[in-house]
Amino acid sequence: MQRRVFLRDGALALLTIGLSPSFLRRTVFAQSLPQGQKGKVLVCLFQRGAADALNMVVPFGERAYYALRPTIAIPAPGRGDGPRGVDLDGFFALHPSLAPLVPLYKRGILAPIQAVGSPSSTRSHFDAQDYMESGTPDVKSTHDGWLNRLLAVRGTCEACAPSPFRAVSMTPQMPRMLEGPEPVIAMSSLGEFSVRTSGASVDRLEALYRSGSTDLVHGAGRDMFEAVRMLRAADPSRYAAAPGADYPRSPFALHLKEIAQLIKANVGLEVAFADVGGWDTHVNQGGASGALAARLDDFSRSLAAFVTDLGDRMEDVVIVTMSEFGRMARQNGTGGTDHGHAGAMFVIGGSVRGGKVLGRWPGLQPEQLYEGRDLALTTDFRSVFAEVVSRHMGAATLDRIFPGFAGEPSGWLGIL
Amino acid sequence: MRMQVLRTTLLAMMLSACASAPRTSAEARANPRELSSREQALHVLNRLSFGPRPGDVDRVLATGVDRWIDRQLQPERIPDPALDALLKAYPVLRMSANELAEEFPPPGAALRQARQRGDTALAKGKRVELARASRSIVGEITSARVARASVSERQLQEVMTDFWLNHFTVFVGKGQLRYTLPDYERESIRPFVFGRFRDLLGAVARSPAMLQYLDNVQSVADSGRRVSESRRVARRDRQARSRQRGLNENYARELLELHTLGVDGGYTQQDVIDVARALTGWTVGPPRIGTQGFVFNPAAHDAEEKLVLGHRLPAGRGIEDGEEVLDILARHPSTARFISRKLAIRFVSDAPSDELVDLAADVFRRSDGDIREVVRAIVTSSEFFSRAAYRAKVKSPFEVVVSALRAVDARPDTTPRTAAVVAQLGQPIYGHQAPNGWPETSEPWMNTGAILSRINFGLALAAGRVPGASLRQWPAFDTLSRRSAKEQVAGVVEAFLGGVVSAETRDVLESGVNPLLARAGTDSTFAIMEPDSVASASSAARERRRRVAGTAGAPVRLSGLSQTVGLALGSPEFQRR
User: Fold this and answer.
1) In-domain check, residue B444
2) What confidence tens digit (pLDDT) does each residue in B303-346 have?
3) 3-state per-residue secondary structure call for A279-331
4) Which CATH number fits domain A36-196+244-404: 2.60.40, 3.40.50, 3.40.720, 1.10.10?
5) Count of the separate structural domains present in chain B
6) Which of B210, B244, B277 is the last residue of a domain?
7) ipTM > 0.85 (yes/no)
8) Quick check: A201 and B516 CB within 8 A?
9) A181 touches chain B (CB under 8 A)
């Protein structure tokens, strides 16, 4: 339904302008493709600040977990007072605030990955985020982000120019992960993506950019006015999420909702990015309830609403969540956790072979901990990204996206 | 070498002496320029300054283009009372890193201190307050960058400061680096923007900002290497060495690739390693936050022999190793070419000719890296004044904002709001994470999202929503308000677009009708309305529909002269310089 409405408005726009920009041709063309070939979408979500993996995907079967975290551990599933972990497989449980994700796990479209992250030993937020976004741990001279390199490698069909909404970051500034030569739009919200004045001024501004000249500036301006028109046709202000998609009232939820809108409006979105902060829980992070629980509540309800909202379109969508590193296995002196090493990721999508916790569990005994203090790493984050961009997005030349990474498909986790 | 410099200066002085008089044919032969005098004046204002203020073009013409250039090259002789007054509003700029860290302690450190006192629950309100205060210094620093660039009479000096701060970029978000930024700009960059490249390079190499940004503070001799001083190693250093694993190549690599030779400058991975070894021990003194500044730590310095770009650095030395590396790099022919090309890209065009780069690189080598003379060679070249170079550059967001502020003669905004606008346009000040800095070429700045933000900025400024910039303060506003639509357009084109626009642009500005766009507006351009006047009910309704709850800034409604200004600021021509 949504799609047909857009097609009509898109065609109308073409008639009005009398010129047909190539990306509109492509979008209209895309309507007629069989479902299986429709655009695949990758949504990357960054939990900035180092989310506490051990309290998200809780190893309740590991006795050491409770010894290391006397006051902030999540109670094992079972009977008892108060909120407890939600059992996944008899060993791992999700934090009770992640309960909205459990139905996705049971449907087999959610794969939690434990003990995953960057092989770099850094415990600096800045460096670790930089590495996860550049895709080159311990190499600082990389100037572009791996998602931008994905766009370059993936290319577009020869006959058509890329959609202006091919890559969208719902952030005020361009994130490092999308930096690079391929065009990307960064915006705080869809509403921001409009010429902010009334009709006559807009028309006259557009007229300024339609004046014959074909240089860089005029070209960018013409594309922009088409993109604005395209988005207006999708009418973000009137968007209603699918029934049952109950987004929380938070910035993160709003970003996800608008990404869902772009996907459903078929504007040619291939890669989307959003981030969410508040994970640097050094002090009083709480256990089954408290500060971290509140962050996880917003996080999981937003994700669950997004999946519900997209409905069948989740067949074309893969969501990957990530954080720069995990936190210390042992709680600190102020009821929180300090910077650690390996973390956890969630991969969600119609084609995900979920319903089980992926990644080899390294254990929490003193000799099993990284540098005697942190969850050890058993999966390089690049192996997860490589599998997703290869199997979901069809990217072939992985060595250009992750230079210097020798991860072979045989070592992939089998997420997809 | 000296002769050459002297001759250039004399020539410039001779030319400027008669620049306001009609050009003689002999003069034209001596320095053939394709641009008219007025175009030349506008061109130098767009390239050697952040754009003309009202009346600037005439002032440059009265002074003479060449003499104006010569003056800008000697900023120390230009009085700058407006700047001096402005700087009083920024106490942070005068403070050292230590003073800043004391006055605005980072919340983490305050928390640790509280913990040591046994106070485990530093009140949340207090933490928030500390966090806000420690961030406020960034607001002052970024605000000052915009305000200085818009008011200073020493415009070329501000342009060069922008250039070098970008060449030697550091990232405000790394650790506690923000405390070192005023020091960095004041002590390491500004005194050297027209100095010798070697002095600038050396000042940056010893700056706490760069040492932290590119991790040289953590780089210590690999274990097993002989160090300069091992007899009595302080406990702190022993701790540091056990915590840090050895050599860190980050600064060495960027020093070669981005600061001096360029990526194709002819160095190897082994050169990177040996440069890193030569720079071990170049670090900052305690405390870690704030810092007392550069120190050389012999206990961390790799004292064995090194080979850098074919030069042997003998064993058994200390800080001399690093100094010699900087000497080698500053005088390397690849550096002369790399820096000259980058300057030519900033000042002339995205693809300067090899001849121009050779000419500038030659001046660089012969003058021992005298930046003033390299810039002089570039901005007095015939390529600089060529038709092809005229308006060939796309403005960076910083340039868009500052040039617009200057065009309306805005009062400097000492809040962080205008700097936040620069960030919204995609160029947060001190906010480039990777060490390659913001692009100097045009293409990366021009895309769908960028052009939209720029147009919206122009509209917001015309509507009086950019702090300090009010059209009513724009000297021409009152006079033009009483004129015909045609005269208004002429006035706006003069003020914002250098008096010259394409026929199409003038048509659109004058009539609001574009033959290519049938549904273009038909409003009266003669009616003068205040920026906030009420728009027609139908367009207001349309706007309400388009608006999404929670987005920043309601749409602006413009008509008459303010609309023309908004259109001019959003026009393709204004995006160029």
Assistant:
1) yes
2) 999 999 999 999 999 999 999 999 999 999 999 999 999 999 99
3) CCCCCCCCCCCCHHHHHHHHHHHHHHHHHHHHHHHHHHEEEEEEECCCEECCC
4) 3.40.720
5) 3
6) B210
7) no
8) no
9) yes
